[in-house]
Specification:
CATH superfamily of the largest domain: HUPs
Number of domains: 3
Function: Catalyzes the 2-thiolation of uridine at the wobble position (U34) of tRNA, leading to the formation of s(2)U34.
Order of helices and strands: EHEHEHHEEEHHEHHEEEEEEEEEEE
Distance between the termini: 42 Å
Pfam families: tRNA_Me_trans, tRNA_Me_trans_C, tRNA_Me_trans_M
CATH topology of the largest domain: Rossmann fold
Strand order of the largest sheet: 12-15-14-13-16-17
Strand content: 25-35%
Catalytic activity: S-sulfanyl-L-cysteinyl-[protein] + uridine(34) in tRNA + AH2 + ATP = 2-thiouridine(34) in tRNA + L-cysteinyl-[protein] + A + AMP + diphosphate + H(+)
GO molecular function: ATP binding; tRNA binding; tRNA-uridine 2-sulfurtransferase activity
Shape: globular
Structural class: alpha/beta
Number of helices: 8
Protein name: tRNA-specific 2-thiouridylase MnmA
Helix content: 10-25%
Largest sheet: 6 strands, antiparallel, barrel
CATH architecture of the largest domain: 3-Layer(aba) Sandwich
């Protein structure tokens, strides 16, 4: 096959490209320029997609003997990833930009261009596996990225290749060294590539501005402090709340709710964080099978979270969009709107991805499957 290897400049994508070459594919390497000013992206061990990453990707392509190009996706990245990230925080949500980048850049914009140019698939260094078009967890649980890939539909997955998902990370580094790839010991990137300082709150504040509001107590409704904007908070947050006095019982306070309309941030106990129901929109059935009836699954609600058993109820939302309600068998704490709820098959010990949705309501704000109203004024009805 003729395949396009997305080379980020890290060890995983370099080895993925090398394995594609070794498998006999006609491979072309490409690095995505995601900023009109690459120097503003983070560098070193905390980087991703910076100028130094482009240089590392080019050197890896030279070692592999494959053509290499840099494609400018800066405008698309700003519109689809950065702007959406800022808007979500302004709306009191906690988005995952890596998930959005996979959905809209790497496996949409990039894949579409690749197909238009005659490529059969896009190769990446993601830690996940594909088995007959079905997305599965990586062998290395610590590096598994099936969660951030679960927004991909069956067609997008049919054009994807994940060559490193069957190998633990330490062995990938050893393989890179054997192949003479200089990135063998390059530290993993982490955090958000487009936040140069690592200070997400400051990054958001510079774009959203000051939007004052109140921090109130969950139980009493008492105002405890003021704040400059809901973008500085996320559900489950404990530190940096700006509250001078401890709780009356001396226990820690956590953010339990964020209301962007009024600017109110509610704090309470760890017990107040627990929810037994989740409503999700933007549904993607990753395995290609549409669901109409309730079924059992296990859910992961954050990138590095554990699995929890749920009963899934497919519903139609107020504008007839598909959604699903999750009834948790055991309550979960710190479930944030804007994150993905990724469903896995329980009979595979959570190995096979079923689908995903964006968390849009939790707890008391979730309708029952008969269709009561939800907190933002919409409604859902059973399908």
């Amino acid at each position: 096959m003729r395949v396009l290897a997305a080379m980020s400049g890290g060890v995983d994508s370099a080895v993925a490209a090398a394995r594609a070459v070794e498998a006999g594919h006609d491979v072309v390497g490409v690095h995505l320029a995601l900023s009109s000013a690459p120097g503003t992206l983070r560098t070193g061990s905390r980087g991703c997609c910076s100028r130094e990453d482009a240089d590392d990707a080019r050197r890896a392509a030279d070692v592999l003997g494959i053509p290499f190009y840099v494609w400018d996706f800066a405008d698309r990245f700003k519109e689809d990833v950065i702007d959406e990230f800022v808007a979500a925080y302004a709306a009191g949500q906690t988005p995952n930009p890596c998930l959005t980048c996979n959905e809209k850049i790497k496996f949409s914009a990039l894949a579409d261009r690749a197909v238009a140019l005659g490529f059969d698939a896009v190769v990446t260094g993601h830690y996940a596996r594909l088995s007959q078009g079905v997305l599965r967890r990586a062998v290395d649980d610590d590096k598994d990225q099936s969660y951030v890939l679960a927004v991909l539909n069956r067609e997008q997955l049919s054009r994807a290749m994940f060559p490193v998902g069957d190998t633990p990370k330490p062995q990938i580094r050893e393989e890179a060294a054997r192949r003479g790839l200089a990135v063998a010991d390059k530290p993993d990137s982490h955090d958000i590539c487009f936040v140069p300082t690592g200070d997400t709150k400051a990054f958001l504040g510079a774009r959203i501005g000051v939007r004052p509001g109140a921090i109130v107590d969950h139980a009493s409704g008492e105002q405890l402090a003021d704040h400059d904007g809901v973008h500085g908070f996320t559900i489950g947050q404990r530190k940096g709340l700006g509250i001078d006095a401890p709780a009356a019982d001396g226990r820690p306070r956590y953010v339990t709710d964020i209301d962007p309309a009024t600017g109110t941030v509610t704090v309470g106990t760890s017990q107040d964080l627990r929810v037994s129901a989740i409503l999700a929109d933007r549904v993607v059935w990753t395995d290609g099978t549409e669901r109409d009836e309730p079924f059992e699954a296990v859910v992961q609600v954050r990138a590095h979270g554990g699995l929890a058993p749920v009963t899934v109820h497919p519903v139609r939302l107020d504008d007839d969009r598909p959604g699903f309600r999750l009834d948790l068998h055991t309550p979960l704490a710190g479930v944030a709107r804007g994150q993905a709820a990724v469903l896995y098959r329980p009979d595979t010990d959570g190995d096979v991805v079923v689908g995903s949705g964006r968390i849009c309501a939790t707890g008391d704000a979730v309708p029952d499957v008969a269709g009561t109203s939800i907190s933002d004024g919409g409604s859902a009805r059973a399908r």
